[in-house]
Amino acid sequence: MPLSQRFTLTQYLIEQRRRFPDASGDFNALILDVALACKAIARTVAFGELGGVTGNHEVEGGASINVQGETQKKLDVLSNQVFIQMNEWGGHLAGMASEEMGAPYQIPTSYPRGKYLLVFDPLDGSSNIDVNVSVGSIFSVLRAPADAIASGRDLTEADFLQPGATQVAAGYALYGPTTMFILSVGNGVAGFTLDPNLGEFRLTHPDIRVPEQTQEFAINASNSRFWEPPVKRYVDECLAGRTGPRGKDFNMRWIASMVAEAHRILMRGGVFLYPRDTKDPSKPGRLRLLYEANPIGFIMEQAGGRASTGRQPVLGVRPSELHQRIGLVFGSREEVERIERYHHEPA
Ligand code: AHG
Ligand code: MN
Ligand code: MN
Ligand code: MN
């Protein structure tokens, strides 16, 4: 398709809105603010060492630590600030929550408050920043509780504890060789590529579908001694290759940026596992439910793939904490269903 005929993200959103004649336009404005934040982060990431943005975020006494005990990179903190600045003023949001903030962020009273909640991982894969490997931002849009919208009250953690199935929209930006913006407003999944000349996201992948079958899996194998038996069985069968029970050879990938793995899987199929394991009994999984598992799960399901804890669909889990961790398996439907089956079969 000639470049001039490619839709922009704005045009795509206007087209989608035509399905809802009563829509106020708030939602579209919100997504455009999120996309603007992602463009700003993409620029900052692209400057790397030249921009002085690599390395840890230093505070008095050493590197800062976020609420989940991780060392914060400068870009974790910066990206979080960009998300806040681009989204707090527009009047579309009742509040925000992020990986990098212990408690919900209250929209300052100097701005109007709106009806949506924005939950985000401002920079996913941030350990890869200093080695120039792809990173991204992940976001989830929820509706604020009716009484919060009506009263404009401050939000509590409980307001955010909604199952992933209630998401209004979800998406991510990927800062790779090109910057991409992947979005689902609950009507399939669309992919946009940043046109650096126009500074606009343009529709390049109109209806992304995850291939149902695959011969590629992604798991951090250094954790294998902590895996539960169903996961060990699944991986062993993949490794056994064409002479094993699967009757085919598998390939393996591990980028350590979940957002980049999710993108690869959307483009060419595959399965990703960061399962619950026995490494640290206080952490039932590595990835976070509200701003990693739920938005990526929503995208996968909207693209015809599947996302699971291993035991049940991720989108059905009722969250109990803002920063809750969970086992996560997603990707090609048949593989995820197989892994779920192994979890339900007696050992
Ligand atoms: P974040 O950078 O937002 O904290 O997330 C990192 C996550 C995820 O992107 C990746 O899949 C995983 O951590 C990598 O974990 P390992 O270091 O255990 O491989
Ligand atoms: Mn982190
Ligand atoms: Mn992350
Ligand atoms: Mn992060």
TrEMBL record:
**Entry's cofactor comment:** Binds 2 magnesium ions per subunit.
Record GO terms (molecular function): fructose 1,6-bisphosphate 1-phosphatase activity
Q: What subcellular compartments does it reside in?
A: Cytoplasm
State the EC number(s).
Answer: 3.1.3.11
Question: Can you tell me which residues bind Mg(2+) 2?
Answer: 121, 124, 292
- Enumerate the Pfam families for this protein: FBPase (PF00316), FBPase_C (PF18913)
Q: Does the keyword Magnesium apply?
A: yes
Keywords in UniProt for this one? Carbohydrate metabolism, Cytoplasm, Hydrolase, Magnesium, Metal-binding
Q: Which residues bind Mg(2+) 1?
A: 99, 121, 123
Residues binding substrate: 124-127, 220
Q: Give start and end of each Fructose-1-6-bisphosphatase class I N-terminal domain.
A: 8-206
Part of which pathway?
Carbohydrate biosynthesis; Calvin cycle
Q: Reaction catalysed?
A: beta-D-fructose 1,6-bisphosphate + H2O = beta-D-fructose 6-phosphate + phosphate
Q: Is Cytoplasm given among the entry's keywords? A: yes
Q: What positions does the domain Fructose-1-6-bisphosphatase class 1 C-terminal occupy?
A: 210-343
TM region positions: none
The cofactor named in the record is:
Mg(2+)
Subunit and interaction comment:
Homotetramer.
- In which family does this protein belong, per the annotation? Belongs to the FBPase class 1 family.
Q: What is this protein called?
A: Fructose-1,6-bisphosphatase class 1
Q: What is the lineage of its organism?
A: Bacteria, Pseudomonadati, Pseudomonadota, Betaproteobacteria, Burkholderiales
